[in-house]
């Protein structure tokens, strides 16, 4: 029977296949893509004309675009329905996801609050209790905001006395927020909802009101129209939003793409951070203890990133990369705060520093080859101790109020679920506060760090995680994931989804490529603008390392990344279509000539430059822009682009246009699909149910296009000839 079944499979495969590529991939599914019309749309850059035949897909409000989305989702849904083990993946994801997740407690007023998710709740719930012996009660349940979980809780902020809460909500994943103010005892809303708030924190001025940021509502689509003048407002409790005081950002001289405001814990100072892009900020200060005080400028350029992390009276503690690419902490008196008066408090080291405060101490967290090291200092600059961490991985938290008696921190890595620990800051004693009870055994897996050489000789670290006993035979299904931009560091963290991937015999590899912040400002800058190709070269070299060292081979390798990481995947697959079998670009920045014309995209120019800067920058961007580098007659990897129809950060038009280009030019049988989540945005606040469905589809698509007829943990044999 076994031989007969194999003969039938081979016969069926040969009958269905028309070329060698099809013969190799017996899982090939015939796909008929929706017709995507082209239009005559041409832009001229420095004398060069560039066609944009799918410009019409940028109109997110048109019925025609909506019909195209439905048609693409129908094709993608039909394809995914052919994958026999997609439901098995979903069931296992749900099983392992279904454990209680509890956040670190925090005290506001008379109550102790904490987040908790029972397991598969779409959104985590905020609980509270007055005393340790009290029974916890539900304080705020975002799952009641909507029936399908697509309205999510954003930030929360309590008044100084803890009696009033202001919290923001997002609808359908949009970056636009509404702010609701409630009485914490009655849990009732006490005034009208604030609307049209975007890219904003909520920072209270004692108990009187709070600061928030937003843009004027754009003309045209609020999901794609450009927004570039951010404003800081003060909302006084009991007044209407129309009466809110404009603090900063209302004049041409004060025009910045991002403006944030933060009040010190003692309520004495407001610090304002105007930015023209995602890197570099000015630093301004207002003394709130003095009526009608003027705004004082501390830094008036975008050359550095500096933020005030704490004050003790008039002494300010500032973390900065000014003359310190790896960051340091300085002090200065608020009466004379300009940089020439700054004094080093925690000097720069060879490792990148971030810092937080809690319980009257400063906690300096260092990245040592992307792994955490934490030191505790007092306010005189004396080293109290190095915090003993549970292992090699990422430690987070260490933040709280000055009078907190206990410090909480979390620890995880790629194979260890996040556990919360307590720390007595006076004695240094620590212990487990909350360890998850998850149907997963980290002892079955291993994670190791390697260093490989990129194209120009630069050494790049990479963490590779997989099941113990994995044979390095070049046939392990592997996901290579990274980001490579905006000074964001890829530090080890646990993912339920990746645990399921590794259970299937999968390898998960994350290189710390340039453009990130793992080695400070120099590492970031080495992957920006006219050096952006370094990022792609680092990623390609990581893939080649995995192949050369037999972790995998091109037939079993997938690349994945989101947002700027989606650009990374798009550029890699268009530059090296032969390198990988599967590509999963998520919510990617894929049209590098027009990214800056949508929403707040112009704020990304520090990393990318723009096509309008000069001819050299235009040529460089066009040279790697994924939308503009899809070529006729090339066999691209099996591709599933993912995006959300409410993504107003990286608008879905990027993904739409890339999908259209691939579908019109792809050669061979590899599918080029797009999965468009409805009522979803860039990712934040996505309901658990949708997240699980997304991963089941991504892993199913990936394994299926690597040739698996069944899940690898059922059988590690492959179809003959693959």
Automatic annotation (TrEMBL):
One of its GO terms (biological process) is proteolysis. Transmembrane segments: none annotated. Belongs to the peptidase S9A family. Gene3D superfamilies: alpha/beta hydrolase, Prolyl oligopeptidase, N-terminal domain. SUPFAM superfamilies: alpha/beta-Hydrolases, Peptidase/esterase 'gauge' domain. Keywords: Hydrolase, Periplasm, Protease, Serine protease, Signal. GO terms for cellular component: cytosol; periplasmic space. Residues 34-435 form the Peptidase S9A N-terminal domain. Cleaves peptide bonds on the C-terminal side of prolyl residues within peptides that are up to approximately 30 amino acids long. Has an absolute requirement for an X-Pro bond in the trans configuration immediately preceding the Pro-Y scissible bond. Coiled coil: none annotated. This is prolyl oligopeptidase. Signal peptide: none annotated. Its EC number is 3.4.21.26. It comes from Gelidibacter salicanalis. It is found in: Periplasm.
